Amino acid sequence: MATILVSSSRSAQGNTRRVASAIAAYLNADVISPAMATRDVLARADRIGFGSGIYWLGFDQDLVHQIERLPPMPGKDAFVFATSALPEPPFRQYLRRFRDLLEDKEFRVIGMFACRGAATWGPFKMVGGVSTDHPDETDLIAARAFATRLAP
Questions:
Q1: What InterPro entries does the entry give (predicted)?
Q2: Which residues make Cβ contacts (< 8 Å) with residue 65, sequence separation at least 6?
């Protein structure tokens, strides 16, 4: 089963890149940037993972805009992964909103995964950062376990 991961990782720590690598290694997947995620490229995959760090309570805008530009992809299996310095707040459920975006494009979302990721920018810089030890080995083991549940 051909799998592609579309991943945006902007942090200096490479939080999302590390999670994408853990998932990709288990699924034997290629990891590409949002700019490379065209309809033709995605059409060649049986399953597509979409992931990014969470920035200001949302997924990376380059990734979101790339998905918005896609035509409908009816029945194509997709999954979501994210890293975030803080837990998802109930008033801004970014995982659900991102899943809804994929479902609006007729993807069949088969799973979602999120873990902590270090943040040392903006207001977090003043306190020395938050979640600075994440993703840790436990997070990467959880990412691989998530990948095992996606395997056919």
A1: Flavoprotein-like_sf (IPR029039)
A2: 34
CATH fold group of domain 3-150: Rossmann fold (3.40.50)
List the structure tokens of 136: 């840790």
Q: Is 94 helix (H, G, I), strand (E, B) or coil?
A: helix
DSSP annotation of 69 reads H
Please give the single-letter amino acid code of residue 56: W
User: Could you tell me the residue ranges of all domains in the chain?
Assistant: 3-150
Return d(Cα 140, Cα 115) in angstroms, integer: 9
pLDDT in tens, 45-104: 999 999 998 887 789 999 999 999 999 999 899 999 998 876 666 777 889 999 999 999
> What single-letter DSSP state applies at residue 46?
S
Whether the CA torsion 21, 23, 29, 33 is positive or negative: it is negative
Kindly report the pTM of this predicted structure.
0.88
Give the integer Cα–Cα distance in Å for 37 and 57: 23
Query: Which H/E stretch holds residue 52?
Result: strand 47-53
Tokens of 15: 């939080």
